[in-house]
Design a protein that fits this description.
Bound molecules: adenosine-5'-triphosphate, magnesium ion
Radius of gyration: 26 Å
Amino acid sequence: MKEIILIKNGEIALKGLNRSTFEDAMIKNIRRRMAHLGKIEARKAQSTVTIAPQDEFFDMDAASDIVSKVFGVSAFCRACEIEKDMSVICKTAAEYLKNELEGAKTFKVIAKRSDKKFPLTSPEICREVGGYLLSKFHNLKVDVIDPEVTVVIEIRDKNAYIHSAQTDGAGGIPTGTGGRAMLLISGGIDSPVAGYMMAKRGLEITAIHFASPPYTSERALEKVKDLLRQMAQYCGRIKLYTVSFTEVQEQIRDRVREEYSTLVMRRFMMRIANKIAEKDGSLALITGESLGQVASQTLPAICCTDAVSQMPVFRPLIGMDKEEIVAISRKIDTFDISVQPFEDCCTVFTPKHPKTKPNLSDFEKVESVMDIDALVNKAAEETRYEYITAV
Ligand code: ATP
Ligand code: MG
């Protein structure tokens, strides 16, 4: 029996002439992420993509798990590919779905016939397959309203396909088709969710992390990499830039009034990220900020950080509650990593009374005690990168 994965494209199908480009990008992402499982053949036809393993010991469970995390896939299922012959279809349906049918009391058959030359109509296919299954499984009754098992027979150009219920895919647009943006990633709950959300809208994600050794530990940086490994299951391989932020933070601590220090620090992050993003070919920055969540995320505070960015700053979580963000982080399995207790460069130097209503005009004076360009250039020059791949 030849088992394949049948993929239904969601929003991709709406993209008119670009559709083929989007489908190709989705297939490329699938191929890359399945490379370690063995050879596959990918075919496109009628808003569906089929992934057929070419190796005998191909792990279909692992492959399904990978497909469930690829953006652009609206729904998918494992299916059996067979010749378009009614007696083969009936026999294979009974065999392929044996376990599900044995364990159920009710079922129905749905037929989808995109090959209009097939001699039987859809209702005729349903009747014939349904009758055959009833004769083989005496535990079963037909229930067309709310069946426990739905047997789907698809008659397409070259082959017939048999499957049961399909699973929802990750949705969205294939990662990489929308250009590249740089995610400011901390070790917290929010930024990984923000990166996931923008990758879902088709962006390729590169990441930048600000570390302040020895105030922040090697383990804190490892935590960020663990988060990226997890995110890479959805976003694909992620390039991570690690900025040594210690000198900037020490100068802020020594020279800037405490109530301004958080925002001055955030403005430095923006400046350095802009510089590195430009070199990297990223066209926007992404942060995990949510309006009003902390002092540095009030509207006046965000205006002060935005003012030093030349590129657009995407904040997909801006209107979300913490519980909504946590729900997504649990779904993408970053939550348990995020809550591990390792210090972040922000927390190490947190002031007791940060300004919640800062004035943009204050910063010129507050920051005049520092050589901004020199600090930014030095931090950017010393920045290193590496690639993080999925777990
Ligand atoms: P998170 O849960 O993502 O840490 P947060 O609610 O703790 O967010 P802040 O610590 O104020 O909020 O950070 C706001 C945003 O700034 C983060 O979502 C992230 O995008 C960015 N950021 C904070 N710290 C760092 C860091 N050390 N390196 C890179 N980006 C950071
Ligand atoms: Mg944080």
